[in-house]
Amino acid sequence: MNRKLFIPILLLVIVALACGLPGGSSTSDEDDAATPQTATAVDEPSPSTAGEMVTQLSQAEKAVVRIVTTGAYEYPEGKVETGFTGSGFIIDPSGLAVTNNHVVTGAALIEVYFYGDSKPYRARLLASSECSDLALIDIEGEGFTYFDWFTDDIELGLQVYALGYPRGDPEFTRHQGFISKKQATAYTNWTDVSSVVEHDAIINPGSSGGPLVTAEGKVVGINYASNATDNRYLAITYKEALPVLEDLKAGKDVLAVGINGEAWLFEDGSSGIWIYSVTSGSPADKAGMRAGDFLMEMEGITLAKEGTLSEYCGILRGKPEGAVLGVKVVRIRTGEVLEGQINGRQLEVIDNFSAQPSGQSGSTSAEGYFDESFDGDLSNWSQFVAAGDASKEFVEVYNDALRFDMPSPETYAYVENPANFYRDVYVEAEFSTLQGGRNGMAVICRASADGWYEVRMSTVGNYAGAYEVYRYDPALRERKLNPYFRLLPTERSYTRDIKTGFNKNTLGLLCSGNSLVIYINGVEQTAHKKEIIDDVLSEGTVGVGVMSFSGGKVLVDVTRVTTQAP
User: Residue 537 contacts by C-beta under 8 Å, 6 or more apart in sequence?
Assistant: First the structure.
């Protein structure tokens, strides 16, 4: 290991993760964007039908559940407390349900919803398998409708149905398709499943862990990955699942040390597994591994050389459960290299390196403050689209204003001033709402390849008069997750300082040191300030954005953008 930090630049994923999005939202869904989905727990919810085995598709929705998890996860850009959604299905009337390991491992809280229910059932993780991407949870209660398994030979052309709750939507979905490959090759960066079938029944983020069933409701496999551009959808077959589930029912983890991670490649050719979370009490936890560690070697073997978990899972498969395994870890946050053992001696520091966060240039423009009235062209500005059709232009100069002409639904467009880079800055924009349904208007600061901070307000629609602050994380988008997560307030906040309807408003954001301060029509929102707990977004450009969520085309003019020293 060179005494230098090498930041991951390429994530090899041949098929995309089909797990859910933070807070049950799609990448472009403003509702509860990047916020853990919450619900009021109830004492004794009751299933709609008790103890029946699914024998036809019309019964299937009673045994498929929407899973919502909440936990703390460490990404290269920093720690995030958020929630994710996935799907699962019941295999026993006592409430045992199957899902994917990547849906639930590392979660502090697991709740499940049945179709049509607004209140959750409590659930707990019994055991999981990292290398088969399977987990078994126990839903509180009994007498549930459940699935049986299809155990005949899986033939090409077998008609199948993918069931689940894609994108965290509470509406149950069913997609029809056919088995297109009996033994698919599936190299992914988060697991190493041996027995996989390929099919063309559509699955999307949030479908992970849902069942792939026959017309009679028999489970052929568990959906876990997709590549929509090639119309490839993958399921773990019953041949792999059933033996693993026997151990999971006994509370025994299989091919697992207690991490939720993904393979990464580095710009110098080295590789490793980024650990997003560590299960409390697991062998990895007892060895001293932490969320945010890079697991670089196991038993002296370099891991993830091809951007997959093949080496990691190969070592686990070649060793008895509970075997002592030597590991080497890089802890980027502290600049330490550690060695130790799984099921043996704890990690100890053996080396240090000098670490500098990704994207930091080491210099910041001390000048470059401006007052832009858009009475000329856009040569000093650059447009980008965070959600919607990135090939289209949604912004133009019109009547001395920067006009955002946004289709509905779900388009997010921004302009930034790339000529000036700031660490500490106050940026303010004047917005005029001219037309539209539910909208959002934003100013951003410290924008770079690592993301940006954003304050957003709404003047029309369900959330008129509300404001929020987000951080945008492109690493989450690469993982097919919602890249927006709310920093403050913890829930959407309303203020009378916003002029709702078709009016003019000014929105300002002070990015200074370790704090963000919001100003709406010149009034500081003193009830909501936020300390920035990481130093990844220490400098960058400023800009403005407009969002169209639903209810018709959105038309907004930005008549002025100014920046000042804090």
Answer: 77, 446, 448, 450, 451, 452, 453, 471
